[in-house]
Automatic annotation (TrEMBL):
Keyword match Transferase: yes
Transmembrane segments: none
One MF term in the entry's GO annotations: sulfotransferase activity
Name of the molecule in the record: Sulfotransferase domain-containing protein
Residues in Sulfotransferase domain copies: 12-155
A Pfam family reported for this protein in Swiss-Prot or TrEMBL: Sulfotransfer_1
Gene3D superfamilies: P-loop containing nucleotide triphosphate hydrolases
Length: 156
């Protein structure tokens, strides 16, 4: 996914996560800053692959992504925040190919607190999911896996 500099949107930084670690708060702070541009949508999911991330927008193409970073913004820096970028290990290569100078920011939270907060977010969307304790014991979900920060950050 190499591009010439002229055809790439200017993305100076990407906040990669972690989920439930204050990224919405950071997004709102950055959005209010007069010298920083972030797209209206918090999580673009452009660098997520469609086969394992149901929110992936890769199929929309670079033009779609580029449209989120309007040229000529009077901002000194621009960036985006997508927490799934930290969870999927291939994203680091795609980001590097896209912009090797891009700064990566990772927000972290106590993994147990993060898992508990994520559980209640999931529960709000789907009341039929198992109890928190059962979800923790299960290896078929990402509730615990998203807290393995070393594994996720090592490629970066």
């Amino acid at each position: 996914m190499k591009h010439d500099l002229e055809e790439k949107p200017r993305v100076d930084f990407v906040v990669i996560g972690a989920q439930k670690s204050g990224t919405t708060w950071l997004f709102e702070c950055l959005d209010e800053h007069p010298e920083i541009y972030v797209p209206a949508e918090k999580e673009l999911h452009y660098f997520c692959h469609e086969d394992d991330c149901r929110f992936s927008t890769k199929h929309e193409g670079l033009g779609w992504y580029d449209a989120r970073f309007k040229p000529g913004q009077p901002c000194k820096v621009s960036g985006e925040l997508t927490t799934d970028y930290m969870y999927y290990k291939y994203v680091v290569d795609d980001l590097f190919q896209f912009n090797s100078e891009c700064k990566i920011v990772a927000l972290l939270r106590n993994p147990v607190d993060r898992a508990y907060s994520a559980y209640w977010m999931w529960r709000r969307h789907n009341r039929s999911i198992p109890k928190f304790e059962d979800m923790i014991r299960s290896s078929t979900n990402s509730l615990v896996g998203r807290g393995y920060y070393y594994q996720q950050l090592k490629p970066y």
